[in-house]
């Protein structure tokens, strides 16, 4: 189960921006590792959680995504909802319920599915700004310190070279947000020169950056093109990547864009886009085959059916059977499954008939039993 960022900050789900800011300040000061040297490992973990929660809830788009799909959806790279609420639409096949889709006409991209992401390469790496949604949202200690330092006009007031912080001193004079009246503390906030910065911790960015791209079954059946937008560091232009989804692609298919994404040190990374398949409300994929259920009434089971199943491309596939349908009977429609991305050949569609028994009175049940017994 994913994290509940509201619980971490101790605020209700309808908390205001000021409530979230106040809760973060109070908890971040309380759990800063330099104030908890006797229990530094636990405090570091808590401090990172608090920073992660604040980073999400203080950003309107990240918060909206979290409210709809939770932490796991946020970390999976769900696109931000458009102004006015709701997740983007415009995807082929009209999938409901907030699956990743298109934002028509955005930036002149012709209405193709479009997602925007911030980018982080780890400690000391670039961080997204504004209201971009993070791809594979990740949080690390240096990012937690970065957020913390923003409240004090420069570097970390607890860091070395600042006069330090007396972890045993009495914290009198603070108001509810934990920060008023602290300018006179030893090495305190009021005495931090704004021109100073904390030492940065650098690390080599991985050579391949992986991003999951969720596609609907309609996308994978018909094919489509999805564009991803990545924020780059040091004021560089955003990176726009086109991802051609061929008919028949499966979950786990990888699309590589070699040496395209800038890192903080000026080198370039390869972006590896991994296809994920969204759950479909009616169809289940089994290799190149498709499976679906069709509800059949008892009357239809006895007398036969002449029905249709709406396919992923909107076509009506006929399902016609004579009387005497058995519960769980399977109808196979040849060549109506998923296309194979290499050969173009299609698998089969398996339609399982689910006979629905209506509620019967005791008298009706007895009559049916008598009829069945007499015909045996």
UniProtKB/TrEMBL annotation:
What superkingdom heads the lineage? Eukaryota
- GO molecular-function terms, A-Z: protein-folding chaperone binding; unfolded protein binding
Q: Any idea where the J domain is?
A: 4-70
For this entry, list what GO says about its biological process.
protein folding; translational initiation
UniProt KW Chaperone keyword: yes
Question: What UniProt keywords are attached to this protein's entry?
Answer: Chaperone
Name of one Pfam family that matches? DnaJ
Q: Which InterPro entries match?
A: DnaJ_C (IPR002939), DnaJ_domain (IPR001623), DnaJ_domain_CS (IPR018253), DnaJ_subfamily_B (IPR051339), HSP40/DnaJ_pept-bd (IPR008971), J_dom_sf (IPR036869)
Give the CC-aspect GO terms.
Answer: cytosol
Recorded hits in PANTHER family, A to Z, give: DNAJ HOMOLOG SUBFAMILY B MEMBER 5, DNAJ HOMOLOG SUBFAMILY C MEMBER
Protein's name in the database: J domain-containing protein
What is the species listed in this Swiss-Prot or TrEMBL entry?
Orbilia oligospora
